[in-house]
């Protein structure tokens, strides 16, 4: 029977045709006659007759035994149900063989595994830096991610919209990332940041770390002119607001992150 197409692999439309055309009573040509040809006892046929959809229950049991479509078509021909036989033959061509179905499942599984491998990192990963920002300043945050993750720096950056898993509390996830999995924290300061509850929370988490840790791990970046929060005024910041300062910005930033050109892959986390 290897290579034969099976009844269970027929499409939903094909099954619907079977249910619809065999249900109406027709002496010698309805589902009861088909059940008899399939080898079901009269007692079993009487049982199916008591069910809401006897044809569906019959076909479901029949196909669970791995029966081939060719056998079903033979029974229909013997019953002179050429109408249903002709209808089903239209669906047979598009029905896969067991081998084809298994191959399709295998390919789909490989594709899903490949997609899973490409998914963003989870919080079990270690990161070089976490970026805290207000939503209006996301373009600059994206620029930082792109620059820092590219050669020659090759840093591992954690940013909420990409690296936080769905379904988790974003505040708790941010706190966990800052406290346990990120060596450094960048704060993109602006008036937007000062008004952002999420960014303020993330900054406070970083500030709650021990004094010796936060002085070396917290890097405020003044992205747009703003009032620097009192809690951050004692920490040296990088200025991105002045054009003359920008020529040194990336060099100072990567040095603050503990990475000079070409050394990213040799650092310890």
UniProtKB/TrEMBL annotation:
Origin superkingdom: Eukaryota
Q: Can you tell me which residues the record assigns to a coiled coil?
A: none
Which biological process annotations from GO are given for this protein?
MyD88-dependent toll-like receptor signaling pathway; positive regulation of canonical NF-kappaB signal transduction
Q: Which UniProt keywords apply?
A: Cytoplasm, Inflammatory response
SMART domains xref list: DEATH (SM00005), TIR (SM00255)
Where the record annotates domain TIR, the positions are 125-257
Gene Ontology MF terms in the entry:
TIR domain binding
Question: Single GO cellular component annotation?
Answer: cytoplasm
Main subcellular location:
cytoplasm
Q: Where is this chain's protein located in or outside the cell?
A: Cytoplasm
Name listed for the protein in its UniProt record: Myeloid differentiation primary response protein MyD88-A
Q: Which gene encodes it?
A: myd88-a
């Amino acid at each position: 029977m290897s290579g034969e197409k099976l009844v269970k692999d027929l499409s939903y439309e094909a099954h619907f045709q079977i249910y619809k055309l065999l249900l109406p009573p027709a002496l010698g040509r309805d589902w009861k006659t088909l059940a008899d040809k399939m080898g079901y006892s009269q007692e079993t046929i009487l049982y199916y007759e008591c069910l809401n959809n006897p044809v569906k229950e019959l076909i479901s049991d029949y196909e669970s035994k791995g029966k081939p479509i060719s056998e079903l078509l033979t029974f229909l021909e013997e019953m002179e149900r050429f109408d249903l036989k002709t209808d089903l033959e239209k669906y047979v061509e598009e029905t896969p063989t067991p081998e084809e179905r298994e191959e399709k499942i295998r390919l789909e599984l490989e594709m899903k595994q490949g997609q899973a491998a490409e998914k963003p990192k989870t919080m079990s990963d270690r990161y070089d830096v976490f970026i805290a920002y207000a939503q209006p300043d996301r373009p600059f945050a994206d620029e930082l991610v792109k620059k820092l993750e590219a050669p020659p720096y090759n840093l591992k950056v954690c940013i909420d919209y990409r690296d936080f898993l769905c379904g988790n509390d974003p505040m708790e996830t941010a706190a966990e990332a800052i406290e346990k999995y990120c060596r450094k924290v960048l704060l993109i300061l602006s008036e937007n940041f000062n008004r952002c509850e999420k960014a303020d929370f993330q900054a406070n988490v970083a500030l709650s770390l021990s004094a010796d840790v936060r002085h070396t791990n917290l890097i405020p970046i003044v992205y747009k002119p703003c009032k620097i929060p009192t809690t951050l005024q004692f920490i040296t910041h990088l200025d991105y607001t002045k054009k003359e300062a920008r020529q040194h910005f990336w060099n100072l930033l990567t040095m603050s992150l503990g990475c000079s050109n070409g050394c990213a892959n040799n650092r310890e986390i």
